[in-house]
Amino acid sequence: MRRMGRRSRLKRWRRQLLRWLGIHVVGGPLLRLWAATWRIEWEDEAAVRRLVDEGDPAILCFWHNRMLPFVRTHRGSGICVLVSRHGDGEVIARMIEKAGFRTARGSSSRGGAAALRALAKAVRERHVAITPDGPRGPRYRMKPGALQLAALTGRPLVLASASAVSRWQLRSWDRFELPRPFSRIRASVRPFSQPVPEGADAETLERLRLAAERELAALTAATDRAVGHEPDPALQPAPPAAPCAP
């Protein structure tokens, strides 16, 4: 029993140490130095200026595993980012706050209603950013939160993605991508092709969710191909749900 207690304490201390390192070392000076070596090329810089840098507040969507390049490109922008409440989310929240972003805490399963209200308030004045497949996947499958926020506020969706020529992929649920030092990165941004009506019903939101998922997946596949990578098979559209038995 004593041995198991010591193991439990060691595991807890190790988690706390890794969290501290993630917040104060990796998320601080080391991340800034690392990201400063990347060469980021926008597919359409005019679109970035029009939609993000100079545009009215919008809801920015990019997959969970592609977030790091945008931490670099919009550092200090004050964009409000939705971050999970679980342990890893605390590390991510502190990291991006150090990079000059604001955060709202919650997810589709924990604290979601409170996070939606916080984002609805924030998007009156500034862009908000959501990783629509986070915090736990499935990878490249959009949850309804971004569409619900658009229907609640009338703000448009803007889709974004980025791919690094040279990268590491972690063994996480999303295969989180770490661009290697000095890597060239291709980034793209474009508006969602369909307006989201304020007060849209559940059926309309589901139709738009599937359309937005397909468009963001296609954008990501295009950025992957632009840097010489074969797109992840998980970017293929989800199979349609089986019809209910009569």
Order of helices and strands: HEHEHEHEHEHEEEEH
Number of strands: 9
Number of domains: 1
General form = globular
Task: Provide an overview of this structure.
The protein is an alpha/beta fold and 246 residues long. The chain has one domain (2-232). It is 43% helix and 16% strand. It contains seven helices and nine strands. The chain has helices at residues 2-36, 45-53, 68-73, 87-98, 112-122, 145-153, 202-226, and strands at 39-42, 59-61, 80-83, 102-105, 128-130, 157-164, 167-169, 177-179, 184-191. It has a seven-stranded mixed sheet with strand order 1-9-6-2-5-3-4, with helices on both faces. Helix 5 (112-122) packs across helix 6. The longest helix has 35 residues, at 2-36. It is globular.
Concise account of the structure shown:
The chain has helices spanning 2-36, 45-53, 68-73, 87-98, 112-122, 145-153, 202-226, and strands at 39-42, 59-61, 80-83, 102-105, 128-130, 157-164, 167-169, 177-179, 184-191. The chain has 246 residues and is of the alpha/beta class. Strand 7 and strand 8 form a beta hairpin.
What's the layout of helices and strands?
Blueprint: H1 2-36, E1 39-42, H2 45-53, E2 59-61, H3 68-73, E3 80-83, H4 87-98, E4 102-105, H5 112-122, E5 128-130, H6 145-153, E6 157-164, E7 167-169, E8 177-179, E9 184-191, H7 202-226
Parallel strand pairs: 1-9, 2-5, 2-6, 3-4, 3-5
Antiparallel strand pairs: 6-9, 7-8
Helix pairs in contact: 1-4, 5-6
Give me some keywords for this one.
single chain, 246 residues, alpha/beta, 7-stranded mixed sheet, two-stranded antiparallel ribbon, 9 strands
